[in-house]
């Protein structure tokens, strides 16, 4: 199975954008895939592709990864082949492949998959987590641009468009509104309307924005729009109070 992963990356890289090879048997067929990797990784581009390689401890007691590289016994051919693959990856720095590998000293071929899968997901999605913007509510910080750029970079890495989550943007909008930073609050609520035009909540939030600003007509407009998408009791109650002049 793990040979298939490496083979797909090397010979059919457009099929996936992320690859996980857990302790692959790269010694197979006289190291055929290693020989292919040595050539192809040096010649082709792998922009937008990620690879995580997990290396289990299949050495005899008393050996380490430095010692085993000099070993010639058949018993260590498996791990030596994977370490050779890691050297190939290290030596090709211009092919745009995003990769990492990890040696698991306390795990063998049978126990390594569970922990390796977790580490691989952390690596593959390491750029997804939004940075902690300590200066989020600094009037000079362009928070909307920072969030848009972050998800553009994530989209580029993943190979498809990932919009800023509605709940994240909505929360930021209310945060700015609570801090009386209405221009920034508007920017975030408007961002959600552009990205999620079929969500009743984005119009409800814009209604809250205009209600906080004291613009009754606009608040009624957006609450009414929200109700055309979903008959939500709280929105209907807010609209009723505005129309009643309360």
Describe the structure.
There is one protein chain. This protein is mainly alpha-helical and 246 residues long. The protein folds into two domains: 2-124, 3-Layer(aba) Sandwich (Rossmann fold); 143-243, Alpha Horseshoe (Serine Threonine Protein Phosphatase 5, Tetratricopeptide repeat). Helix content is 57%, strand content 8%. The protein contains eleven helices and three strands. It has a three-stranded parallel β-sheet, with helices on both faces. Strand 1, helix 2 (28-43) and strand 2 form a beta-alpha-beta unit. The radius of gyration is 27 Å and the shape is elongated. It starts with a helix and ends with a helix. The model has no long low-confidence stretch (mean pLDDT 93).
What are the defining features of this structure?
Serine Threonine Protein Phosphatase 5, Tetratricopeptide repeat; 57% helix; 246 residues; 2 domains; mainly alpha; Rossmann fold
